[in-house]
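ENTRY TYPE: paired fold submission
RECORD: A
CONTENT: sequence, then structure tokens
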Amino acid sequence: MIRAVVAGTMVAVGIGLGAFNAWWVAVVIGVPLIVAGIAVLPRPSRISELPEFRRGTSADAVPIEVEAITRSSLDAGEMQPTMVTATVRPPDDTAYRGRWISSMSRSHFHSVVDRPFTTVPAGALPDRSPGQTPEFGDQPGRWALVYPAAAVVAATVLLLGVPGSVWDIDVSMPSVSGLSGDGGASGSEDPAVDLDDRKRSVLDEIAQLGPTASANILSLDLDEDDTTRAEVYDPTTGEAITLSNYSGRGWDEPRRGTTTKRRADTFRADEIAGTDLGSLTTTMGSRIQATRPGLTYVDMTISRPARGEPVLLVGAFGQDRMSDVEIQGRPDGQVAEFFDPGDFATSFRLARDALAGADLATDQPNLRRFEIRGTADNTPIMYAGQIQNSGGVLMEFTSPDRHGTLTVVPGEFPALSDYQGRSSAGDFSFDQVRPAVFESVRAQAMERGAIEPFDRSAVDIEATSIFAHDDEPVVKVELARESASAGTYSMTGQFLETGY
């Protein structure tokens, strides 16, 4: 059993080191450990669980008369499973017929065949009434499953119980790209430091594809593990060309594949050539740290999110190389705000700025819904909407000549869905929705629902005229998915009724 646990541990260590380090660590250390672990794993044989046949030599030995004996012939080993059928005659007891399988040597087999009257130790007698007739196919038995199961359990416990950072060993080796001089990654310990070098390298690689390649880029990906990928649109065939440089080892051969994207989805290399990715990533990280400390750079993706929209640089940040949050940037260095929607002062400020950017007056009755939803896991969803998963601020507006929605999501630039045409006027203005009222409503709801202070940001609150009370807009709220906190309030913060 100890060997099985050791084998599982060796396999787990090999997998962990191979998965969280450079490719050569997997080849030099990971693979040999996995192979050694498999080799160490105990393998029960057909005789490992069988008792060895021995003649009785002591005074209490029991005489038997062998009636039939069958020796397995699957291999030519000295010891083989052997089925014995014999009449057992215990002293001072009735004789009985027994059948059992034991591990028997070749010499013992021939001896029993020649002299069927023999003896066996008293402790080796077969059962008088066995539960089932023994068969050669019964071996190997449970240990054939116990050993591998123990190894799998040991490997699983180690892989799931040890954080990824433990597997990341601090060793380095010159990359293939560095040796060949093809412009691979710089090998910096901080993945954000060499992003600009990697950007220049991938743009140079794209330029070598052909004269139109630099004007038809679909996406660039710069992972924290020194992996760089690019997807380029070929306008002559409608295909996508993929370039990959894994862990800075050098560029693989370009691969072609089908794509549903077209020229309108692409961007030019000169749109991002002057972007300082190092500075941009530093700004992204500092804004995230204000509300989500401890997260580090994981990945950056550069693409045009939708036709007609500007190019975005989306940075992913997280722990143990797993993305937790994303934040948007633009080629000119602008970075979106990353905020806690439960901070009403900040949410109102960003909402006012977004309305100004969308040319929507804050003192005119052009709103039907103004919602703030937190980002905590236990934040309720009162009504379906564009921020029901992301959290943030949602404004539904309408006026005689336009209507639509305006959202401000943490880590994203304000998003406007604007539809021109005849429409009706709204029901209340942004200036009528006061932060102090939202704070008062939240405090009342927390008291009614017995909400803990640490759940104050798990809030979904909105001013709306869609579900008016006496033809007047109301404020609806719920916190932490606690129904007792749900309520409807007037626009001045007066409690009206439970629920929403």
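RECORD: B
CONTENT: sequence, then structure tokens
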Amino acid sequence: MVILKSKYEIEAIRKACQVVAECHRTIAPLIKPGITTNEIERIFEEIMLKHGAKPYQKGYKGYQYATCASTNDVIAHGFPSNKPLVEGDIVTIDTVAELDGWLGDSAWSYAVGQISPTAEKLMRVTKECLDLGIEQAQPGNRLGDVTSTIQRHAESHGFGVVRDLLAHGIGRDLHEQPTYMHVGKPGKGLRIKEGMVFTIEPMITEGTHLMTIDADGWTARTMDNKLACQYEHTIAITAEGPQILTAH
């Protein structure tokens, strides 16, 4: 069941989302060769605690970190580590903050120094997929209008769209309804209504959309070991259209 949120509840979710947004604003200029994802992890956790928020991912289903740090061919759920990032890497940092019982969720991909033209194109197209998907998240439209737009744009550039990891509703719980893949057909799927709060988080791959899970049970990696990229916002549906709660 989709839980529609009141304006008051949306504002409470926005506060949690803005803690996540501050985390991303803070690290953006720090992503350079030599930084480790453990350092990024520490910065995110410090910012959350400063605002009285909790790193919701820490302890979630046994996950041990405040962030997911996914580099190059890792699609999602990579572990932070002490391995320095190097020139040419792309890294996706994903986190969820809990504030006063409400959750905010955003992932963002970052270039480490000078990256390849292929990586630049993948990052650009993935961000465009997010923006185009958000534009379609209008009251009265259907989720298929969002997902088909994302799929069409990514595949028109020769890229894959991950099917096995889902976007989701969010509020008091991390994975509320609706849950959905970023592929579909226009005019199909759940009708989008005012009061819905959910993520749009396309995971786009250089090659195949198929993935594997490492032996750690978490790290999702492209099956062909080619690059992956992700951008994610939490959005609220209002009478005026979608609002980006995690805007940064």
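NOTES ON RECORD B: Residues 1 and 143 are 15 Å apart (CA to CA). Helices lie at 7-27, 37-50, 117-136, 143-156.
STATUS: closed
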